[in-house]
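Regression check, 2-acetamido-2-deoxy-beta-D-glucopyranose case 295:
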Amino acid sequence: MRLHALKVLAYALLSVALPSTAHPYQQKYDLQKFHIDLDSRRMVDLIRQTRLPKKPEYPDLRATAGIDLDVLKSMQKQWVTSFDWPKEQASLNGFNHFTAHIEGLRIHFIHEKASDPDAIPLILCHGWPGSFLEFEPIIKSLAEQAQTSTNKSISFNVVVPSLPGLAFSTAPPANWTIDDTARVYHTLMTKVLGYKTFAVFGTDWGCGPSFGLYRDYTASTRAAHFAFIPFLPATSEELKSDNITLNSLEAFEEATSEAWLTTGAAYFAEHSTKVTRIPTSSYVGSINIWLMLTA
Ligand SMILES: *[C@@H]1O[C@H](CO)[C@@H](O)[C@H](O)[C@H]1NC(C)=O
Ligand SMILES: *[C@@H]1O[C@H](CO)[C@@H](O)[C@H](O)[C@H]1NC(C)=O
Ligand SMILES: *[C@@H]1O[C@H](CO)[C@@H](O)[C@H](O)[C@H]1NC(C)=O
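Current build output:
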């Protein structure tokens, strides 16, 4: 009898102890539920205080020279006067948000699980200037049961992290690289969330870490889809020295790439090398926050 009572006690203690020992990763990475609090008064103040130029410097160029001033003015007006911030916040909080601490960074992410235990884990990597909101319209549908073209049922456990330094993820040290983000995303998928294998999709800058996952973590990254390939074609000098001749489509793509490098990549150089020295950084920063809220 006494032995039995002790056994019961032991089991009781064990079952109390289990939740903490059963999820060692969650403890190690401090996995927490996260609730978005936009503080709408602060958002409105920030946007109201953003002084836009009175008139465009180059009116004839309009949107070809950057965002059109009239568009920006009307967005500012809408966000200050009629935008329903509490409704937006409630809609964002309709997703399951979490934070985890990985390599000293707080990483924010959405994790929407499908009901099917065989659902495919899928990490969606957003770019810049953007945010997890890029994927807002598709997250729920990907987690729902659907049919493939061959009538197999399919659904996804969708994970959408915020890039380090964007939205609710903390900023990395200055020497941080895209491959560091790939490693953190790999830790998030395999260690924090416990997925042995997963698929990845990336857009824009999100293609950098997505490609890193595809290249360096082949045991766990089993499928990859990129909205752009995060490297450039060879220059015409390189093609020449390698004796490579291009067909007409390749030549067109080569010309497009060279034109972009010549006239379209200034912001890229600026943000790659002088990120804290952009005179308009606060202006860009405000617009970034605005953009984040308008997917
Ligand atoms: C899938 O199901 C649809 C509707 O039931 C059917 O018309 C189609 O032929 C099926 N496709 C395959 C590949 O079995
Ligand atoms: C990068 O910077 C951090 C913090 O300043 C430092 O701890 C780390 O050793 C650096 N990493 C490399 C690879 O230099
Ligand atoms: C390219 O062609 C030239 C002339 O035929 C040759 O000398 C050179 O080695 C070739 N280069 C490569 C990389 O194949």
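Comparison notes: The mean pLDDT is 85. Residues 25-231 form a domain with the Rossmann fold fold (CATH 3.40.50.1820). No diff flagged against the previous build.
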